[in-house]
Amino acid sequence: MKNPRALWASCQNYFQQNIEASEYEKWFSKVEFESYSPATCTLILRVPNDYVAQHIQKNYIEHLRIAISNTFGKIRLLWHTIIVKKEDSTTKTPPTPQMKRREKGFGYTYEGYVDTQSGDGKAKAALASDKAQELIQAPGSVVTTHLPEIDSQLNLHQTFSNYVEGASNKLCRSVGLSIAEHPQGTQFNPMFIYGPSGCGKTHLVNAIGVRCKEMYPNKRVLYVSARIFQVQYTNANMQGKINDFIGFYQTIDMLIVDDVQEWLTSTKTQETFFHIFNHLFRTAKRIILVSDRPPVQLSGMMDRLITRFSCGVVAEMEKPNVQLCVDILKRKIQRDGLHIPENVISYIAENANGSVREIQGIINSLMAYSITYNCNIDMKFVERIVMRAVKIDNQALTIDDIIRVISTHYDVTEQQLKGRLRKREIVLPRQVIMYLADKHIRMPASRIGRCMGGRDHSTVIHSLNLITEKIKKDKDFSNEIQAIEQELGIKE
Asked: 44, 95, 270, 355: which has the fewest C-beta neighbours closer than 10 Å?
């Protein structure tokens, strides 16, 4: 029998002659000979990631069958995907039965090896199966051993045990706990969590990851911010390692991406994540996404990503109300061993602007000042700390405030603004209310619609876009909006 590498070279010649040059270069040129075992009639080919193998499998299966059967005969074909650092081109040493490579990139370490002669477990079973059967397997039967652990980048201090449940986060917490304890399921996949800054989204997704790792230590769980992902993508692109980058992320069992709204201006990052998302979703891996707005309001995100973000469960997390802030404060006070009177706790909760981060900042400041100056924590002391720690808003802006001011400004009644009349002199003020509520209160479109007479969220989004464009193009209208904002007490 000819040298197996020479036989594979013959296969490549066949592909070059029978497949368009651009397609060959894009797909088949990336396929490399790994090994061939005459004893088991097994040919193993190396590809940069599963995406390449799946594309060839789906679109060129007949070419693959013809080329391989004409050269190797009846064999078992296995795809081997691994992230590797390319060997020096001068190195001609053939692969050993045990190949071990390491790639240090993207801030993580990925190792893998394949034993084509004496493997055990699944690898051995795959190699020892019916030798005479002509079978081209799906990429899912890649011969690899157990992947090593990665640094999940999780905050181990943010867990379900110290996550305080309330009306604003009950749905998100319940779904998240179910996902953490049953990661192998497909329900609620992907999970898309959205809400304003400081409401506890990052704590929750870390808790999901931590609980999953506690229950399933071998699961590859990864938390990454959208910004870090984008930096990794940029570095991989500059170094010509996009396939390695995609390949690494395709090995993750639970991928948690925070602040996905930061990708709105980066089309290339979106396209790359699209391929990663598709692979993880198709192989029933868990995807958890976090944003400050729902998918339908991610203006600038690819439509095909928005539809995928929305196909699992979209869960809103609202700012914690005063009672939840009180509960959070009591939990943190108990943990830190502080002694704070009930009236002081209520004062902090009422002035923390519904932000868990601001609550944490206040507690840290109280601890530092009380220890440094050896003083008791009373109302006078707390008022001084809160004034320095947060921006106190004694009268938080509400949509009712906006409706009242707009009604007076445009000389229309509140009933007309919430009604169904479509006269221009009523439609424009109605749209301005929606714009201001979105901009300054950060209300979700669905809730704005309910407050404005039960309108659909798509109507609200359309209004937001119209007013935004009108402000850009009409200077007089822009000045008018600024005047209304000043009347509402809003200072930019």
From this structure: 95
